[in-house]
Amino acid sequence: MVLGQPPTPGRAVIVGTGLIGGSIGMRLRREGWYVTGRDRDPARAQRALELGALDAVGDDPDATITFVATPVRAVAEEARKALAAGPGLVTDVGGVKASIVDAVDDPRFVGGHPMAGSEQDGVDGATPDLFQGATWVLTPTDGTDAEAYAQVRQIVGTLGAETVALPPDRHDELVAVVSHVPHLTAATLMRLADARSVEHRALLRLAAGGFRDMTRVASGHPGIWPDICNDNRAAIVEVLDQLIEALRDMREVVAAGDRDALLAALEQARAARVNLPARFRTAADLSEVRVPVPDRPGAVADVAILAADLDVNIVDLEIAHSTEGPQGVLVMLIETGAAEEFRRALVGRGYRPAVQPVEG
Amino acid sequence: MVLGQPPTPGRAVIVGTGLIGGSIGMRLRREGWYVTGRDRDPARAQRALELGALDAVGDDPDATITFVATPVRAVAEEARKALAAGPGLVTDVGGVKASIVDAVDDPRFVGGHPMAGSEQDGVDGATPDLFQGATWVLTPTDGTDAEAYAQVRQIVGTLGAETVALPPDRHDELVAVVSHVPHLTAATLMRLADARSVEHRALLRLAAGGFRDMTRVASGHPGIWPDICNDNRAAIVEVLDQLIEALRDMREVVAAGDRDALLAALEQARAARVNLPARFRTAADLSEVRVPVPDRPGAVADVAILAADLDVNIVDLEIAHSTEGPQGVLVMLIETGAAEEFRRALVGRGYRPAVQPVEG
Q1: B interface mutation test: which of A20, A137, A185, A313 has the most B CBs within 10 A?
Q2: Cα dihedral across residues A277, A280, A286, A291: positive or negative
Q3: Engineered SS bond to B315: which of A20, A89, B256, B333, CB 3.0-4.6 Å?
């Protein structure tokens, strides 16, 4: 943290102590937090306690924050329970967001989705470093309290992750492209190979690193997928249609022996893959952007999502409260290289930002 | 090597000193071989020399073996040149086999394809351990000299790889499933995401480990693919059609919200992925299988391919020559657990195998 103080360790509740919940608990405890938690399966909560993911099994009405890390179908109900149980913040880690955020709809709830995981599911695969350098999507809305958003963002930073803010439905569209459909495709490639291996027992001996890489995600437990495919059905079906269409084009290129078209397609894919953004790096050269935000619902969500649209990495974000009335100032640290574009975009949306370099 | 002596280091020529050719040179030199080589691009041969992949740039008419490691389109011509230049063995590493093996057709030529590679192409990515534990397909035919096959097999073992014998056209069908179509699919997924990222700049920030794994192969140089897609067109088009059909089924399952069908498909994929054979392990418990092979063309290819069909790992293979006439004995080491099935299959094809355990 460059701005202000590091977030004070607080008290957290983890609902659902699997891989993700357990990893959150382990990391928060390492950072000095007091963490309690529970699971629908008491043995799993007990195991999380044994592994050091929890200080105690149970609830905590004084929690600063509750992480709902259950399967998608249980998230909304657990989030509402947590909101009713105490005055703290509530967030979740579900792989789809629109259905959950619509169902919860509370100023203290901020939907979330860490883009990290492991084929080894369950708390035995948990590690405090699971989120280090990972992207963690938060989905603030017009109804999200600005301070709640800023705090959840800080806590996510404590876990080692970098936040990208997106509207819930946009999150769902994008993860269909980079997660849901690739997963279904990996499983489909694996099944095709498996079917052929009945006839040709040598087949799977020929599976080299490339095939192993491509199908690795298919080795994860399928239990989470029916919910995800249900809640994100429209986007997944749309992207599957696009993939089928694109593969049909590829088939025509191969069938026609069109070398130039094939090379062009593969060159384009190569350039895109090579340019895939690395995990966020800590920028050396930062600027502070101060944006007065009027007492308008959704201003923080609006600014944070605008930054994501421009691929501006917000290194830190705080709300500085004004002593005169409801107005606050959103104080962000961003890379200096992106500052001017961000400033102009903010002005274009009616904000009055002030930008200044940060002394090194 | 358990059987006989370790292969005597000899002299090798590498034609095409890229990633694969360079890695072969480095490993053979480490094993005491004298290695010369050349490349269409003299600077690349020079670089291979600098990196220790060659003892000298140039040809060697006294070579024990020539590895043709050029792009697919140049293999047949280079292989024929090498066969004409001296009495040694010739093999290649091309990603398709039927077109090459048909075009060369010589008792001293054994088609090959190491199932190993790297996204870092060029000799700068070469390493003597590239093939350690990898599967290396050899494609003997009725016209292949038995001794030539046995020797190429031993040399491939020297490189750290394990041989699987397949007929050339079967190799091509199978690599379409585990390599060619997965590669085209990875490129297609990457292009879909790239196209969407124009509209949503945050998209690629959401690409987590699974997506990165799935698209990694797309970062390789596309130069080899037009030849591969041309020479293996029929198999690739067939497998692409199967993939498109399977994805259409998956789309229907998602669109219909059919949880059970989705779970069943993903469970099947998971089981197959989890059971993907590990790299060959050295078996503790071996049996020797001795098969008298009459002076019949293709008997060695026939036996080796039969072993691959049964997924029997031939740990070692030698030809013991009879002093009385053209008959020889094929001596193989295999895992004891597979010995009885292999013996029965051999009998079923008219061979008269003798099996006995090897003293530990």
Answers
A1: A185
A2: positive
A3: B333
**Is A47 among the domain residues?**
yes
What pLDDT, on a 0 to 100 scale, did the predictor assign at position A6? 53
Rounded to whole angstroms, the Cα distance separating B18 from B94 reads 13
What's the confidence (pLDDT) of residue B47? 96
The pLDDT, as a whole number, for residue A2 is 44
Residue contacts between A and B (CB atoms, under 8 Å): 315
Residue with tokens 């000298």: B56
List CB contacts (< 8 A) between B163 and chain A.
none
- Statement to judge: residues B26 and B108 lie in one domain: yes
Task: Check CB contact under 8 Å for B205 and A255.
Answer: no
Looking at residue B322, the DSSP 8-state letter turns out to be P
* B64-96 tens-digit pLDDT: 999 999 999 999 999 999 999 999 999 999 999
**Which residue on chain A is closest to B181 by alpha carbon?**
A189
Contact between A196 and A167 under an 8 Å Cβ cutoff? The reply is no
Residue with tokens 């080795």: A219
B58 φψ region: left (φ > 0), alpha (ψ -120 to 50), beta (else): left
Q: Mean pLDDT across the stretch A19-45?
A: 97
R_g over Cα of chain B: 22
Residues B158 and B225 in one domain: no
Chain A residues in contact with B175 (beta carbon < 8 A):
206
Amino acid present at B271: A
Contact at CB, A205 and B135, closer than 8 angstroms = yes
* ipTM, interface predicted TM-score of the complex: 0.83
Q: Which of A135, A201, A220 lies closest to B205 in CB terms?
A: A135
Question: Burial, A166: exposed, middle or buried (Cβ in 10 Å; 0-12, 13-18, 19+)?
Answer: buried
Give the CATH number for residue A100. Answer: 3.40.50.720
Q: How far is A264 from chain B (nearest CA, A)?
A: 9
CATH number for the domain spanning A175: value is 1.10.3660.10
What is the end-to-end Cα distance of chain B in Å, rounded?
A: 14
Q: How far apart are the first and last CA of chain A?
A: 14
Listed in sequence order, the residues at least 6 apart from A43 whose beta carbon sits closer than 8 Å to its beta carbon are: none
Task: Provide the domain limits for residue B338.
Answer: 286-357
Name the CA dihedral angle for A332, A335, A338, A340, rounded to a multiple of 10 degrees.
60
Q: Rounded distance, CA B335 to CA A355, Å?
A: 71
Within 13 Å, how many C-alpha atoms sit on residue A143's CB side? Answer: 12
